[in-house]
Amino acid sequence: xxxxxxxxxxxxxxxxxxxxxxxxxxxxxxxxxxxxxxxxxxxxxxxxxxxxxxxxxxxxxxxxxxxxxxxxxxxxxxxxxxxxxxxxxxxxxxxxxxxxxxxxxxxxxxxxxxxxxxxxxxxxxxxxxxxxxxxxxxxxxxxxxxxxxxxxxxxxxxxxxxxxxxxxxxxxxxxxxxxxxxxxxxxxxxxx
Amino acid sequence: xxxxxxxxxxxxxxxxxxxxxxxxxxxxxxxxxxxxxxxxxxxxxxxxxxxxxxxxxxxxxxxxxxxxxxxxxxxxxxxxxxxxxxxxxxxxxxxxxxxxxxxxxxxxxxxxxxxxxxxxxxxxxxxxxxxxxxxxxxxxxxxxxxxxxxxxxxxxxxxxxxxxxxxxxxxxxxxxxxxxxxxxxxxxxxxxxxxxxxxxxxxxxxxxxxxxxxxxxxxxxxxxxxxxxxxxxxxxxxxxxxxxxxxxxxxxxxxxxxxxxxxxxxxxxxxxxxxxxxxxxxxxxxxxxxxxxxxxxxxxxxxxxxxxxxxxxxxxxxxxxxxxxxxxxxxxxxxxxxxxxxxxxxxxxxxxxxxxxxxxxxxxxxxxxxxxxxxxxxxxxxxxxxxxxxxxxxxxxxxxxxxxxxxxxxxxxxxxxxxxxxxxxxxxxxxxxxxxxxxx
Lengths: 192, 440
Prior knowledge:
The structure holds two protein chains of two kinds. In chain A, strands 2-1-3-4 form a four-stranded mixed beta sheet, with helices on one face. Chain A folds into two domains: about 5-65, NADH-quinone oxidoreductase subunit E (Arc Repressor Mutant, subunit A, Orthogonal Bundle), CATH 1.10.10; about 80-175, Glutaredoxin, CATH 3.40.30. Chain A has helices spanning about 5-15, 30-40, 45-55, 60-65, 90, 95-105, 150-160, 175-185, and strands at about 80-85, 120-125, 135-140, 140-145. In chain A, strand 3 (about 135-140) and strand 4 (about 140-145) form a beta hairpin. By secondary structure, chain A is of the alpha+beta class. In chain A, helix 1 packs antiparallel against helix 2 and helix 6 (about 95-105) runs parallel beside helix 7. Chain B is α/β, with parallel strands linked by helices. In chain B, about 40% of the residues lie in helices and about 10% in strands. Chain B has 16 helices and eleven strands. In chain B, strands 6-5-11-8-9 form a five-stranded mixed beta sheet, with helices on both faces. A four-stranded parallel beta sheet of chain B has the order 3-2-1-4, sandwiched between helices. The longest helix of chain B is centred in the last third of the chain and has 26 residues, at about 390-415. Chain B is globular, with a radius of gyration of 23 Å. In chain B, about 60% of the residues are buried. The model of chain B has no long low-confidence stretch (mean pLDDT about 95). At the A-B interface, helix 2, helix 5 and helix 8 of A face helix 5, helix 7, strand 3, strand 5 and strand 11 of B.
């Protein structure tokens, strides 16, 4: 049996639930789902079950919640997730060309989101709240401003060779798992 | 003569040091909170009431009045929830507030909590805001370490805990009742009101939900007074607005200007005018959910009343600018596709209507539109509007109805010519497509 949450991570899970008022542990479901996603790079069946175990609710209930949110990925997911905003403000500044270039550079087949080598997911994203810097791209949720088709090709190419490009603001997570760990609310996303 | 611009939320942004706790304190930060805890909670509410501050998240409800609705005799805990789930297309001022001066926002959270006598405040941070979330995590830790949050707020004896909670990618969670469902650990679906959150909100307890920009106004109201604030802007929409300008403009960005500033001033004097000197075609006053206006509305004053009188809504004050080369059908299609993607699926008119709307708009854009499509879209809009639990559905109708109202001819041309006149694409394509930079 696969165990997603090791004893150490179970302790982390307890810390996460303790952020919420007593009796309201269910509020911790999103950070707990981020925690299991940080272990496996996506939310698996086992991950859903173990979150349910921590919260004392059924797997189906956890899945109902997880499937509602786009940042919790239940399907195959690359080591890095490249999100390209194509909403209006970005589209007006050329985002559709950026999306095309990203899909092409990652060699992702039509209608798919993950590259054949499973290194990159390219995800067409809704407004990322940084429209002053349109077109906006996020790499594992770190922002890249005013991205051209040429620039997104460079970004994808460097990700494929194992290099994480410097974001426009803040620090880049190492990969999607690391980003998920930060989203679970763990300090700096390093060690438990 | 231009009035001197008074800045409230961005007043100290010229000093990059206000990003950190020490710099914020040095610039007078947390003095508003100190003043608040020296007063009674009712006095704080009355002060905010008399300032006339209205919510900046879109609805424009008076903040002090909202606080006064919170009952104090229920025997249940009271909660404050800061709505930092900023996701309305075109809106990006909350993010900049947090990235520039997180403590101004947190000070507003603490004052709001004291005003309604809440001892636990949640900050619901949009999941995709990974970096702003890390900023807040550190800022909250600094506020605890410096005795601002915790067992005794600024040594007043008032206890306050602030919990950072991250969303996971769902526009609907910006809607306050959906946000509460999400924070309770459920799918982010809206709830029927009443009961209103003030009475039965988070964990069925009295809850105040405020937008980040709203909260960032509070510290200055505490230190400079209600009269000072009320003198800025217009009588019914006091204060400033941090307008987010994007799309086809020379200088996209956030600009803090008094409420009631005409669009022309914002667009031409601050945002540098339409990109490449092109002509203004259409704009949203308050994000994608607010009806589009046109170049005939350049003089519209940007405050709640004037924008409503012009047939739209001030919303979040997010101005998305389209120029003469942008196809209105494609722009509308893209926005309606957004609502179809983000509809939570609870209400049939929204779930089905947004999906069908985006399909009909797509076929018009692709040159397969039918003559009956415009009456169909009109009918669709009337069957969605005000027929769902929350305003997401109404937001989808805004671009459809307003674009047809102002640009009916452009729709008719798509249908008659069986192609998009901007891209030239479609079965009725002319041999030489009209060259343009398009929203493809």
